Amino acid sequence: MRIVLVGPPGAGKGTQAAYLAENLAIPHISTGDLFRANISQGTPLGRQAKEYMNAGHLVPDEVTIGMAEDRMMQEDAAGGFLLDGFPRNIGQAEALDGFLRAHDLKLDAVLDLEVPEDEVVKRIAGRRICRNDSSHVYHAEYSTPEQPGVCDECGGELYQREDDSEETVRKRLAVYHSETEPIIDYYKAQGLVTTISALGAVNEVTARAMQALGRD
């Protein structure tokens, strides 16, 4: 299967993508992983991306598209893939359509993870990270430490990342609504979109997604 996963920040795309890709036995292709891999390997596209990032500029669509196309051409993606974070705008969606047509392929589904905006803000703004180990993550409401502000694992100080502040989260949501959300209507016109509630336990959301794909 060839699937695009869409949803606002805080919808749990990364978590769901990993579970779905494992259940469907297809590679999970995320924009973040593409950038890290290309930059660490020093590929031409990675070097271009690094130049833009070091200068504080957004990486142009053509670089992101090139990375995604290279990854989709790899052997493990021959039987399908799950795209997470790509396409992020109409231009990238059109480029993806062109790539698929050129290789006589098509998308099977676009899964739209839906979550209320206030819930997104609550999820992200409540996150607290250990200064000693960023893999130790807590939440002010859902996963509190035994002692306020102190990591249960190592005793490190818990803090809120600047990117997780409510103001920043709302700015990220505004960008999502203006740039990425329009691809949902773009794919609806192709009859590909299924909207799934991203509320509830992780396994419940995964079950809804698998049912939408006819794999329950």
Automatic annotation (TrEMBL):
Keyword Cytoplasm: yes
Binding residue positions for ATP: G10, A11, G12, K13, G14, T15, R127, V137, Y138, G200
Gene Ontology annotations for the cellular component aspect, listed alphabetically: cytoplasm
EC number: 2.7.4.3
Pathway given in the UniProt record: Purine metabolism; AMP biosynthesis via salvage pathway; AMP from ADP: step 1/1
GO MF term list: AMP kinase activity; ATP binding
Domain Adenylate kinase active site lid as annotated: residue spans: 127-163
Pfam families: ADK, ADK_lid
NMP: annotated segments: 30-59
Residues that, per the record, bind AMP: T31, R36, H57, L58, V59, G85, F86, P87, R88, Q92, R161, R172
Subcellular location: Cytoplasm
Enzyme's top EC category: transferase
Transferase listed as a keyword: yes
Source species, domain of life: Bacteria
Any single biological process term in GO: AMP salvage
Chief place where the protein resides: cytoplasm
Keywords: ATP-binding, Cytoplasm, Kinase, Nucleotide biosynthesis, Nucleotide-binding, Transferase
Reactions listed under catalytic activity: AMP + ATP = 2 ADP
Subunit composition and interactions: Monomer.
Comment on protein domains: Consists of three domains, a large central CORE domain and two small peripheral domains, NMPbind and LID, which undergo movements during catalysis. The LID domain closes over the site of phosphoryl transfer upon ATP binding. Assembling and dissambling the active center during each catalytic cycle provides an effective means to prevent ATP hydrolysis.
Function summary: Catalyzes the reversible transfer of the terminal phosphate group between ATP and AMP. Plays an important role in cellular energy homeostasis and in adenine nucleotide metabolism.
Family: Belongs to the adenylate kinase family.
Entry protein name: Adenylate kinase
Species assigned in the record: Streptomyces armeniacus
